[in-house]
Design goal:
This protein has 22 helices and 15 strands. With about 650 residues, it is an alpha+beta fold.
Length: about 650
């Protein structure tokens, strides 16, 4: 009865809207879905009741307690405050209210419900949103074995048209789970965490930065303003798009091994095609672009195959644009992978991965970056080695059967992922950093001094060159400014995990407890505060959202959190314990080191050659005001980033005063 009455009430509310539908087939299809949905709820309730009653009659108190705990544990998350949940769609209606900007909705809900609240995603999927730094670190580190996977609809590729798009949403690192994720991550980690390889990528990054400098100088020279002295002339520039072209060059060189210095017509056409594809992926991602994903979350799983067939047969225009963009990226990745296979097989005299001989020698993976190589080549070398490890009495295969069959699709999926994510996030980071430096010009001058001293010490007679090792160790102020900008404008304002009990968990475990003992915390301004113990139960299969940006802007964690202050990341201050824009733990962004190196290199070249001036300075000390942002795949500027630049008219001499 407790299930039937609410169901009839919902049906009474929804039925008038269904009657207004003009398509009778759609009307009856919707009615059928509702009937089956309510029937599923009744069946679940009936089966649970029978189990509990049978245990009561049998007298097994331990089993009775276990059955009631299953119900009570699910209620504990529901008892948290949270936004209103609607039938079928849960709290997903907020996505439409915010036009897909979940970061904006999290900010509103945190003010309304606190740092920990509950929301319901679709049918029966509980979710916890955490904006508490200590609990977030538990999810990332202390209990990471419970939160290894990211939540993603099962068989997500079923709702995406196009073969390349289906392979991407099947094998990209952000959606694969458990053993498959570990195999993919292991190969990527060997590449992105090697300082030697990252140092060999540095020339490509420096060349792209130099071309950006030349383009901006040409733009300044073409300005027709003659009514002021040339040294005082600033030119308005929309820097976001310009930097986006630079980061695209870097990604083309590092991920795919494409030649970027060639200025041929074919090269320009290829770059423009890839640039449009990368932008199209972000513009056409999310639930708003694919309504079938929303419907899939609102109906029983038994309808997923039929709904997936409908989605592939009748895709929306945004779904077709997304599929076309991924097809373009995948086409280039496939060509380069073929070249990588031929190169590696020629070097190591190895048979193709598709072949399965009884035995063949497995050389250790050689990950020294050769001329013309890329991340695709290096990941292929790692998997060529892993694939050769056969099951024995002492060793299990390091790559699962599905991944062994579709290794080529998986490598191309990672190439597409690195290409898309690396282009947009680094461009956003550099643009936000320059915007903040234009508002705080003293910090930009400090970067100029740091860069000039490095250039005078390392290569006084030549052009500026920054290696990976240089970026990580010799530019502390530049790195601090970038890290502070990422704190204010993280590329991913939130991340998510799904609660999955690990293999070592006790039998019958229904979820994970997150609790933090009382702890004394010293903030970056020296204030001592005590955190109170907080305890929360996360049920099995529940989603956990970590509101990263909300934690970065928490005044209890960072003093004056909305003010740009790179000193937080410089001695004598300690490393902020709540700074994790790339995540933490095993599932941290694998390309963090490359992204920071690229940002430092490009910013160093700009500081060496240009002066900055803010196009507009909002009143007050709030550095988040005056720049509109929106979450579309990543956090980016809504209307670009406008600055005023000019070639440097002052040179900062090491250990001297300012001279012209």
């Amino acid at each position: 009865i407790s299930m039937m009455v609410p169901s009839l009430v919902v049906l009474d509310v929804v039925w008038p809207f269904l009657l207004r539908m003009t398509d009778s087939s759609l009307l009856w299809f919707a009615f059928l879905i509702m009937v089956v949905y309510f029937r599923q709820l009744m069946n679940r309730f009936a089966h649970a009741s029978v189990r509990v009653i049978s245990v009561m009659i049998g007298g097994d108190k331990s089993r009775l307690r276990q059955e009631f705990n299953k119900v009570n544990n699910k209620k504990k998350i529901v008892r948290l405050a949270g936004p209103r949940s609607f039938p079928f769609v849960g709290s997903a209606m907020a996505l439409f209210q915010s036009q897909g900007d979940l970061d904006q909705m999290f900010a509103v809900w945190i003010k309304q419900f606190g740092k920990i609240f509950n929301m319901q995603l679709f049918v029966g999927i509980p979710a916890v949103v955490i904006a508490d730094a200590n609990l977030a670190r538990q999810v990332f580190l202390k209990k990471h074995t419970w939160f290894v996977n990211r939540p993603a609809p099962s068989n997500l590729e079923r709702f995406i048209p196009g073969t390349s798009a289906q392979h991407f949403f099947r094998w990209s690192m952000t959606v694969v789970k458990d053993a498959e994720w570990r195999s993919v991550r292991r190969a990527a980690t060997a590449v992105f965490h090697s300082n030697e390889i990252l140092n060999r990528f540095s020339p490509a990054v420096n060349e792209a930065a130099k071309r950006l400098v030349n383009d901006l100088k040409a733009l300044w020279s073409s300005n027709d303003t003659n009514d002021v002295d040339e040294d005082e002339r600033f030119v308005d520039v929309e820097i976001w798009r310009k930097i986006g072209e630079t980061t695209l060059e870097v990604i083309c060189s590092t991920v795919m091994g494409l030649e970027t210095s060639n200025a041929s017509e074919a090269s320009r056409t290829r770059h423009m095609e890839l640039l449009k594809s990368a932008r199209a992926v972000f513009a056409n991602s999310g639930f708003a672009a694919n309504p079938y994903l929303l419907i899939a979350g609102a109906v029983p799983k038994m309808f997923s195959p039929i709904l997936g067939l409908i989605a592939r047969t009748f895709p929306t225009q945004q779904m077709r644009d997304l599929s076309k963009a991924l097809e373009t990226i995948d086409r280039y990745a496939n060509e380069l992978l073929d070249e990588a296979i031929a190169q590696v097989q020629c070097e190591e005299k190895a048979p193709p991965l598709a072949a399965e001989p009884a035995s063949w020698p497995v050389p250790p993976p050689r990950l020294e970056l050769q001329e013309g190589e890329s991340i695709i080549n290096l990941m292929y070398k790692m998997w060529a080695h892993d694939k050769g490890l056969k099951s024995t009495a002492t060793a299990a295969p390091r790559i699962g059967p599905a991944l062994r069959r579709e290794w080529a699709q998986a490598i191309r999926a990672q190439a597409a992922l690195f290409f898309i994510a690396g282009y947009e996030t680094t461009a956003n980071t550099l643009s936000f950093t320059l915007y903040l430096l234009a508002r705080h010009i003293d910090w930009f001058h400090a970067i100029q001094v740091e860069v000039d001293e490095h250039h005078a010490r390392k290569n006084p007679g030549g052009q500026l060159t920054v290696t990976h090792d240089d970026a990580q160790t010799l530019f502390p102020k530049t790195m601090a400014c970038i890290r502070e900008a990422i704190r204010l404008f993280p590329p991913a304002p939130f991340t998510n995990r799904v609660c999955s009990p690990p293999s070592h968990a006790a039998s019958g475990t229904n979820g994970a407890w997150l609790d933090e003992e009382d702890e004394t915390v010293v903030s970056d301004d020296g204030d001592i505060t005590k955190t109170t113990k907080s305890t929360i139960f996360v049920p099995k299969n529940a989603d956990v959202f970590i509101a990263i940006r909300a934690i970065h802007l928490d005044p209890q964690v960072f003093s004056n959190p909305r003010t740009f202050d790179p000193q937080r990341f410089l001695p004598p201050n300690k490393e902020p314990y709540a700074w994790f824009p790339f995540g933490l733990g095993p599932r941290q962004c694998v390309a963090t080191k490359l992204a920071l190196t690229e940002a430092v290199t490009v910013l160093a070249h700009l500081a060496r050659n240009f002066d900055l001036k803010a196009a507009y300075v909002a009143p007050g000390e709030d550095d988040l005001e005056g720049l509109e942002t929106k979450m579309v795949g990543t956090l980016g500027p809504t209307k670009g980033v406008h600055l005023r630049i000019r070639p440097r008219c002052y040179v900062f001499k090491p250990n001297t005063t300012l001279t012209t």
